[in-house]
Amino acid sequence: MFNLPARFIGTLTAAAMGASLALPPAKAADDTIKVGILHSLSGTMAISETTLKDTMLFLIDEQNKKGGVLGKKLEAVVVDPASDWPLFAEKARQLIEQDKVAAVFGCWTSSSRKSVLPVFEELNSMLFYPVQYEGEESSRNVFYTGAAPNQQAIPAVDYLAKEEGVERWVLAGTDYVYPQTTNKILKAYLNAKGVKDEDIMINYTPFGQSDWQTIVSDIKKFGSTGKKTAVVSTINGDANVPFYKELANQGIKAEDIPVVAFSVGEEELAGLDTKPLVGHLAAWNYFQSVDADANAEFIKEWHAYTKNDKRVTNDPMEATYIGFNMWVKAVEAAGTTDSNAVIDTIVGTSVPNLSGGYATMMPNHHITKPVLIGEVQDDGQFDIVYQTPGLVVGDEWSDYLPGSKELISDWRKPMSCGNFNIASGKCGGVTN
Amino acid sequence: MQLNRSLSVLLLMLGLCFHAAGASAQSSGDEKLRPLIQALAGDNFDDTTKAVSDLVRTGDPRVSMILNALGAGDLYVTKADQTVFLGKREGADYAASDPLTGAKLDPVPRSAAEKIKVNNRLRRDIAAAIGGLTLMSDDIAERRSAAEAILKTRDPGSIPLLDQAIAAEKDAGVKALMQQAKAAAVLNSEATDEVKVAAIAEVSAGNSRDALGLLTPLESVGGPVGEAAKAAIASINSKLALWNGIQNIVYGLSLGSVLLLAAIGLAITFGVMGVINMAHGEMVMIGAYTTFVVQQIIRTSAPGLFDYSLLIALPAAFLVSGAVGVVIERGVIRFLYGRPLETLLATWGISLVLQQAIRSWFGASNVQVGNPSWMAGSFDLGLLTLTWSRLWIIVFSLSVFAILQLVLKKTMLGLRMRAVTQNRRMASSMGIRTPWVDALTFGLGSGIAGIAGVALSQIDNVSPNLGQGYIIDSFMVVVFGGVGNLWGTLVGAMSLGIANKFLEPFAGAVLGKIVVLVLIILFIQKRPRGLFALKGRAIEA
């Protein structure tokens, strides 16, 4: 009788750990190239990251159908870092040291990326990071295939100012590094464009905020001075639904105060009551509704692979697609999966993106992207209302922040520096 | 603005000669309209806007129909020969018809056509154009939205139209709205100062927040108009300051009622039984998922009952969460009574297991729980905007609280529960089967958490993480209110809610939360047993 509790706790702990256990790596074989997938399959971030794991498995499957890479089949090694930032570093180490993967595709939050960064630099491996982020970073071992702030936030603000005539800005975000840095850049940008401080309202909320009454009523107040007002939202995934619901409930329509969001995509809208969101905007580099043959083909194959024709596609999936294809192309050009060789070869590699153009890996390890603005439709898809005329190059060190203005990154030899200060002419201009 | 002005004047004339337009005139207008409709499919929004104004200028009565279709996103253009048609999705094709005559055309494959893009600005212009047309409509809702559209655009060109509409209007509410719209338009026009000052008085009598928006730009004008605007703004601001205080209290009560709902189940399992139940949040989550399943069943088998789905979900959620609670108590917790640390670890493990189970079963993404129509929207109380969902949740949480009090004080189960928690041995000697009372008490607490889940599904995301967001707040409320006292939970939840809302405007949401936490820590130092400490021997045991 008294042994029971201990046994129960044992079972429970085992069960709890089972949730975060990695899929066992398949048998080692010399005729395969291993690819690591580092996305949370449990915990808070599973909602977003599970899809990217599926995307990677799908891409690897497709590549193997085409004969693999360098005549070898690709083999996926999936681990689950369970939305736990230190665990990301542990799992990354495991992938590189034990499983000997050639490259790793993974991470979503900046915190997880910052956590694995030293591991990749120490072990000289490669990470492809597929999510939009705040910039202010460049590493020789990381390839940023998501958007930098100038590839998402700034064009969105330009669109609102030009097309909607917005003069007053609410910068609302969740309280962590991505919204804070993005808002800092946006505020500097708006100030540079002549917007006064009293026309900018910055508001931060905790993760998972669900009570938006006061904030929405503040936004309403802020927007009632006769000047056209818009909200630029870097509110993180889960807190968005109650935010939009409160907006709709308090009678604020997209025509009155439009909200442009940087973290709301098709995946977040799937399984949501989209009525309160119709007409609000999102800025991304890809929408499922993009009208291009490459996209139609991709969606068709994705539906066939997942055996579910309701599965949506989204921007980080496209970034994963681009990153994976760049890696494949660079490995084939280098003739080896050796990190140093691939890192040197990959700069300048161009692969098709899903919106009918090409993405090129730049010397700063960021890529070129078109910027799209879409309005939410009642079917959870986006109606694209604007597209930048050309491609935008990702700017790792923002041109609008003091201290980062003078920095550039160029990983080509002989410079090979992630923070070259053009004012002082030295590498490592700012300790970061 | 330019567009709106000319647009509504034309629409006025158009409305007047609506009935006079004969069939012969229409067919001759067709050739004139065709190229204009074609021009709607321009390369950018400026082109489309111009095409809209050109269309309105023709004065053809069918224009409003075409603009409506454009605004609703039903106009498409073929990629091959750039023909504009009225489309409707039908499988892989668009069922096409002529936008002018309505004649049926051959279906167009989806890939061969493109939607004519409409953005918020264009939609606003279209609404204003249509607003001019529908001011005299027979439908009261249409007249209201027409007046609202003009109030937004403040188009001076629509003043004659409004005069006419005000004279004909019978409904007092819509009439007041039209007068507001007219005053707003006058302020935007070249009228004389006396007229404008009168308009300022008219505007400041209405909804103050909108009035501020209209008056602020006038402040810098100077002269009698500027003076009047300044005075009006000052009086509105002082009125708003008073209402701000009221708003904080009401919003605080609403936040407090959410906290109360989340915590009230815990007040039973932790407060009354003393079990540190980290899986409490997951009981709430299971209740929310039960709501989802109930709605899913209703959607497929009896869509007519959707408005009652929450009422059906309530007992279901209570039973499901309650049953899970009983299983947890019987299976795990009963072996751990008196060992709080192990209970904490075990229930935390259970919470992870439950989360992952739901995640594997329903998927990691949010599931969609709909709002019944009576939960959507808002109403104005003075200068306060109250949403129906929040109001219902206040009412609901107070009734749950009252019912729970009744159960504890007036039923046999409640009596036994109190007996067991106060003196287990004595109760046992009196013939009460204490293990079963424990199980039922835990089940009751869990079931109430499930009911809370039904309510929270209306204002929050339903995802496997739902419960995590509430567990800390729930413990905070119970500890602050005083463990073992339901009234303490009520007062604790409400005062935390109101304190939060008064701090938020000054400190921001993040700092506000921190300040509340610090205050609670200080309070607990002073009164370790919370607001309403239980007295008596039971406490010492």
From TrEMBL, chain A:
Keywords of this entry: Signal
Keyword Signal: yes
Domain of life, per lineage: Bacteria
InterPro entries: ABC_urea-bd_UrtA, Peripla_BP_I
Stretch forming the signal peptide: 1-28
Classification via SUPFAM superfamilies: Periplasmic binding protein-like I
Protein name: Urea ABC transporter substrate-binding protein
Species assigned in the record: Phyllobacterium endophyticum
From TrEMBL, chain B:
Residues spanning the membrane: 249-276, 283-302, 308-328, 340-358, 391-408, 435-455, 475-499, 506-524
Family: Belongs to the binding-protein-dependent transport system permease family. LivHM subfamily.
InterPro entries hit by this protein: ABC_transp_permease, ABC_UrtB_bac, BCAA_transport_permease
GO MF annotation, one: transmembrane transporter activity
Lineage summary: Bacteria, Pseudomonadati, Pseudomonadota, Alphaproteobacteria, Hyphomicrobiales
Domain of life: Bacteria
Signal peptide: 1-25
Protein name: Urea ABC transporter permease subunit UrtB
Keywords assigned by UniProt, alphabetized: Amino-acid transport, Cell membrane, Membrane, Signal, Transmembrane, Transmembrane helix, Transport
Gene Ontology biological process terms, A to Z: amino acid transport
A Pfam short name: BPD_transp_2
A single GO cellular-component term on record: plasma membrane
Membrane topology: Multi-pass membrane protein
Subcellular location: Cell membrane
